[in-house]
Every structure is written in structure tokens, then in C-alpha cells.
Amino acid sequence: MNNQQLIISGVGGQGILFITRLLAETAMAKGFHVLTSETHGMAQRGGIVISHLKVGDFSSPLVRPGQADGLLALKPETVPLHRHFLKQEGWIVANAPPLAIVEVAHPLSIMDADSLALTMGNPQSVNLMVLGRAIAESGRLFCTAAEVEEAIQRKLEMKKGPLDGAMAAFRAGLGATP
Amino acid sequence: MDRIDPLLMQGNEAIARALIENGCVVATSYPGTPASEILSGVMSWQKAEGVAMHVEWAINEKVALEIAYAGSQSGLRTAVAMKQVGLNVASDPLMSAVYLGVTGGFIVISADDPGPHSSQTEQDSRLLAMLAKIPVLDPDSPGQAQELVALAFELSEEFQVPVMLRPTTRVCHACQDIQPAPVKKLGRTADFRKNPSRWAATPNFRYRLHLELNEKLARMAAYGPTAPRRLNPGARANKAIVASGAAAGHAREIMKNLGLWDNIPFFQVIQPYPLHSEFTTEILRDFDEILVLEETTGVIEMQLRDRDKVRGKLSGAVPEAGELLPELIEGIIAGFAGVTVPAVPQPPTGGGRRPTLCPGCPHRASFYAIKKTAPKGIYPSDIGCYTLGANLGGVDTVLCMGASVSQAAGFHHAYRVTGEERDVVATIGDSTFFHSGIPPLIDAVTQRSRFVLVILDNATTAMTGNQPTPAVPLAGGVPVEISSVVEGCGVRFCKTGDPLDLPGFTRLVKEAVEFARKDSVAVVIAKSPCLVDRNRPKLQRDQVEIDVTCTGCKVCTSQFECPALVFDEATKKVTTDLLICSGCGVCMDVCPSRSIKPREEKP
User: Fold this and answer.
1) How many CB atoms lie within 10 A of CB B62?
2) Where does a domain end: B176, B195, B220?
3) Contacts A85 to B, Cβ<8 Å
4) Cβ-Cβ contacts under 8 Å, B36 against chain A
5) Residue B342 domain flag
6) Residue B2 has what pLDDT?
7) Under 8 Å between Cβ of B378 and B406
8) Complex ipTM, two decimals?
9) Digit-coded pLDDT (tens) for B301-356
10) Which tens digit of pLDDT belongs to each residue from B499-549?
11) Collapsing DSSP states into helix, strand and coil, what is residue B338?
């Protein structure tokens, strides 16, 4: 895979920056150049937060509408808000209860990460579950599950508790049944 | 020195790294989006590299600039960082410092926010650089910001002037793989050389300094390293595109996508002011049509003095407000080049959700108490998270840092002098109070202004990422108590309460309102820590649940507006979002039917 452009969105507090940077670091470990664009400031207070991630040779940090390979939606409501970024063959992975999203134009994979996060007693881990769910659809992302796990390991190596929680959440997403 | 591997760095971190790499010794800042992470980045890199520096979160941008400037007068490399509206606050010392000049390299970093995403204006700091007559550098990416910091120090020392670095949100809050450079050890020590005719110049000398400055500007407009860069030397056409900042990054990528890169000459302007004079002459001589892409004002465009050949903001070819998003630039470039592009997919109209105070935020309780106590009051407010109190009907005005206090006085006098008494209850955050709320409070005491000022003291600068305040400084700092400042201003009513104790706090606000009606300005300090402050231990509190007696009256979701309380259209009752309820318990006092209880079962 050469260049890849992704949109990751949800609401403030869901850890969108964390998984955006995690993917960017995974890409760097594979020798790619990366450019991302983050949301900071007022919108982080419960408003809609969007990250752009571009892996490969780019000079703009923003994904243009109609250019994204994939959308990772951490809230069902960001699917209609941000699906216009997708190119024709672009795919969607969303955190949503079954049947919450109607989508005909793009391949859609969902998982109910909110419920799973509560069951696992880890309400802050929805982000990694959705990332895991995206990786589970093979051949979509520029990286493999093992490469993401190495990146998580490097990022949280000094923090045993959060590391275990993050790994558990990511793997729960990987194993989630469609 | 060992080569360090590339690291993923945010633009602000890359700027911070470059300051350390280039021997910066004093770095100061006041937080503000999108500039906030620059100084925290400096702190991290300073620690990692073990260099001796003075790094401080200053009380405001003016103080920050003056402290860093004195370091430069002492021969050291220094920098100050702020957001664009912070530059307004710091513009007084800046205008003067430009005439006096510098000894050590001095960079004024002013981060703009085209959009705006998190600011009260879209102002272009480069225009303020023109007004101040200082050179300004305009990076397109984190990587270029790193490069331009090094260049800014050289330019500053070569011409003995402060240099502005003007990143925008898309540079500050972009992340890129960055190759750290080795840290230069300049080994300078402070060496202030007395020269009163320069450093304390009187108006007579200032005129001469102004002439000198004009002469420096003419030479800077011919300085090679900051000259515009022709990025596609092979392209030949009678048209050219000139771009700077983030717009240059978007434009390059789009020209390549549209197959125009080998056809239309592209120039990237690194130093929009003063624009290089030879470049200006040549581009107007060599091309029939020139498109200028820049944010947010036509600063380059207005220096390319030709109304017939130049297309940009002034000519109407490029919008004069809002961010130059790549999809917008694509259309403009396509039109300029005479090629067609497919229609851009449009976002939906409506949808989204507005930002709101966090679940459990003590400000929500403060606003609720204020509205209960003075329902007909006027509520001036200020810059910070609590601006979101507008959702709750607790914020009527937001102007600029510290204005809540002066506006409260202004409203009081406007009504009083025209024969009406009106309750005025202003809100201001702790950091904003220190920043510029103190002089208007003294003014209020002196002028017998009668209003209530509620200082929302969450012991941090929350909105920008929990920077310290003078009351809660970093290790080694001496704390300054808000209550002692208020009392020192001459305020006769100053009481502190915890807004999470809603009944008790409401009584306190009532007492203050009554005092202000008959006596003088009253201050209530609403003291309760920010819940998202990572510097504090996470509180373990019981979440709430709603029992069957809920009447569905929606007071908790509309008047109190806690995002953790959700009205269920199916059952017509409210439920708790257990993913986000913080267990502050204030809603139990808000609920008219007393249907909200601590939750028995733990998630």
C-alpha cells in the first residue's frame, strides 16, 4: 500500500488524538512519512473532534472531501457528519449499536464499543476497540495488528496498568464479531 | 553526536525543539489555542537535553514578552509564544522594542487561527508585524517551522530586530515525522551593556531609531536566506502561483494532483513582510497573471503593487474571511489554471454537537446558582471554558481577556446613571483574573461600581490544557492567593465557597448580590478543582441513577445541561450515561422531584 488518508472522528474526551498519533507512529516505524491534523481547544469539551491522518508523501495535513480511504467513527453521529470525506470506494468503521447506522454507499463495519467498554470496566478505551475493529477487516489499513501492538507497547511501556488496559481493549476490538 | 531517530512531533513541539536546538535561554508564554503546547514542549526538551534555561508561564502576554525581551537585551537568545489575540495584549512592548532592537536573537511567536477554530478573531499577525515593522516568517508545516526557528534567530541577530514567527492552527496542530537536530551550545552569559540613548530612548532618539529601522527593513527585503523559494524551476507559463504558510502546503499537493506542478511556476514566500524587493520586481515583470494564496489577510498581495496582474483577496479571487481549506484552494487553482475538477462532496447541513462544560464541571453548578439568585441579572463573562456557560444562559457577553470585570462596571453605571438598578453578576476564571482582571477590579472599587464578580477558581488554566496559574505555580514557584489579591484591591466583600455544594453556594451568591445592591462590588470565589486536570488524582465518587419518580421535566438536561444526563424519548424519563458521569452529585440538588440518587451498583 502506498499512500493512505484517514479520518478519525468522535467527541472530545474519547481519545481521538491518542489513536491518531498511535497510527502515525505505527506508520513511521514502517518508514513512511506522516502528516496529521488535530482538533484542540474549545471543541475538545464534548464537541465534535476530527483528526486527519495522511501516510505517505503529502504536503497538506488536511484530507479533502472525497479523498479519504477510510473513516473511523467513534460515535454513530459522526458517520453522517464526515462520510463526505470518503472516496467512492472508502470504508467506514463505527462504534454503534447494531442497526444504528444506515449506509448504502460505503462498506460499513460496526461494533458496540460503548457497551463492551462498560462491561470490561474500561470506559476510556472505546478508541482502541474501534481501531482494533478496523484492523480486523484485513487489507484495509496500511498496518497490521502486530505493528499497532508494537506501537502501543512503545507508547505505554512505562505505564503497566494503562498498557494492559490498552492491549485488552485493542484485542477486544480485533476479536469483536461483526 | 549520535543521530536521533525521527520523532512524531506536533508543530508546536517542533518549534519548541528548534528553540532548544538553537540555543534559546529564556522562553516565556501565556497559554492560548493554538500556541499552548509550545512552552510545555520547551519544558520537556529542556529537561531531556539538560540545558540551563528560564522557562515560564507568565501572568499574561505583555509580561511574557517583556521578560523575554530583557533576556535578549542581555545578549541571550530568547523567545515568547502566544496566540494571535495574545499579541494584542503584548503589542505595546512589541511596538517599542522594534525601534530599540535586540542584542541576542529574539523570536516573537504568534500563532494565528484562521477559521477561527478556538479564538475570538481571525486576525492576521503578519499585519501586526507590518504595523510594528518587524520581519515575519510564515511556516507551512511542523518541519518548516523547525527550520524557520533557526533562520529567525539568525535574521534577528543579523539585523538586531525582533523577528516574528507566525504559524497557524494547521501548523501548530499538525503532527509530522521530524528529524531532531543537535543542540547548539552557544555558551553565552548575560551581558547587558548600558546605553541609555538606545535602551531608554527619548522621542528625539526614537525618530532616529525609526529611520534606522526603515533602513534595516530595506536590507531585510534583500536577505538571501529568507527570499521566496521557486519550488518547481522547470515549469514555464505566463502565470505564476505565490503562496505562504499552510496554504502553500495545500497548494503544492493540489497542483501535483491536478497535474499542474510541471506547468505553472510556484513560489513559496517564507518572509511575507518585508517582501523581497527583487522578487516583487521580477515576478511583476515576468508574469501576466499572479495568484496569491495566503492566510488570513492579503499581506503579500498588498505588497505586490499591481491591480491588473495580481489575483488574491483584494482582487476578490480568494475569500477574505475563513480558513483557506484545501478543497477551496483546489477550486481557486483550477479556475486560475483553466482546468476543471469534479465537484467536491459537500458536508451535511446541520448536525454535529456544540461543545459543553464537562460532566461534573464545577462551573455548571456556579452558573446554576447565579441564574437562581439573580434571574433578571446581566451576566458578563470572559475567555475560558466557562464561556460555554452561554449554553446554560449564564453568559451574556464575551469580549476579551478580563473584560467581564470592566463590562460589569460599565453595565452597572449605564443603568444607574439612567435611573435603574440592575443586578450584574460577572464570571471570570482564575487564570484570566490574574491575566487582566485585577486593574478593572481596582477601578470598580475606586468608582463605587456595584456588581458581583464570581471568580471561577478551578486551580488551573483549563481550556488550553491545564497550565499552572499564579495561585498554583509549578514546583519552586511562590503561590499568590486570589483572596489576598481581591482584598488588596480594596474589595470589602470577598468570600469563598464550593459550588458543588449547590445549596450552600447559592446562599453565598445571594449574600453577595444583596451586598452589591446596597454597598459595593462583591467577590465570590467559587473554589473547586478542574476534573480533567491530569495533575490531580482522579476522584472516586458515586455515579448517580434516576429512579421511577422522574417526571421527565427536563430541568436537569436543559437548565443544568449535564451531558451525562440523557432524556430518553421512549420512556420520557432521564437516564445516566455511565461512560461519562463523574459522580459530582450536583444534579441531585437540581432535580425538582428529587429523583436522582447515588448509584448502588458499581459499573
Assistant:
1) 23
2) B220
3) 345
4) 40
5) no
6) 54
7) no
8) 0.96
9) 999 989 899 999 999 999 999 999 999 999 999 999 999 999 999 999 888 888 89
10) 999 999 999 999 999 999 999 999 999 999 999 888 888 778 899 999 999
11) coil
